[in-house]
Structures are given as structure tokens and as C-alpha cells.
Specification:
Length: about 110
Amino acid sequence: MSDCIFCRIIKGEIPSDTIYEDGDMLAFRDITPQAPVHFLVIPKKHIGSLMEAEREDASLLGKLLHKAGELAAEQGCSERGARFVINCKSDGGQTVDHLHIHVLGGRMMMWPPG
Ligand code: DGP
């Protein structure tokens, strides 16, 4: 999608601090980090939100989650853990309409969310 910020990051039109890339996905540091470790894992396929994902996307979603866990460990969160967040639509606090998994770590997270 040409006007989607994350699609433009995938195409290299907007620079990002990339920590992982393969044919299916990209992981890069969040521009407004909320924790010492804060990166996003996104599919290269434009999917507006988790609730727009289709059944045929199930395998891709699994790959994204698995890689998010692996990267969290690589980024130093293996012992103390991390928070994995998918904001969805307005009530969920989603501001960029391209499915993304937030990975936050390096500090204790609060619960419940505000
Ligand atoms: P959400 O609110 O769940 O839709 O989170 C979107 C996140 O995307 C937010 O934490 C900030 C981040 N973000 C927005 N624009 C950019 C950008 O151009 N570069 C990077 N690295 N992150 C961005």
C-alpha cells in the first residue's frame, strides 16, 4: 500500500533501524521506544490489523509470533522475559494500520494496561 508508513519502510523509502528481515517479515526498532528494548515485527504483506487477517494468513501469523519470541531473546530478554502486544483498531490503540507486534523488554511491565 503506497501511503502506508510501514509499507514504505519495507520498500526502503523511509529509513529504519532494522534488526531482522526475511522474505515474509521485517523487525525494526520503534521510533518512540517505551522500554529499553522496543521493536516491531511486521509482515511484508499489507494486513491492516489482526482483525483483517484471513485464514490463509495463519501460517504467516505463526511465523511472526515465533520470530518475535526469538528476537526478544536475542535482544537480551531471554532471562527476564518481555511483553508482546498487538494493538488493534481505535479501541486497541492502533495508530499505524499495518499489522505489527510490539516487543517490549528491559524493564518490568505493568498490568492491567491503562
Ligand atoms: P500502534 O500504536 O500499536 O499502532 O504503534 C505504532 C508504532 O509505530 C508506534 O509505537 C510508533 C511506531 N512508528 C510510527 N511511525 C514509525 C516510523 O516511521 N518508524 C519507526 N521506526 N516506528 C514508527
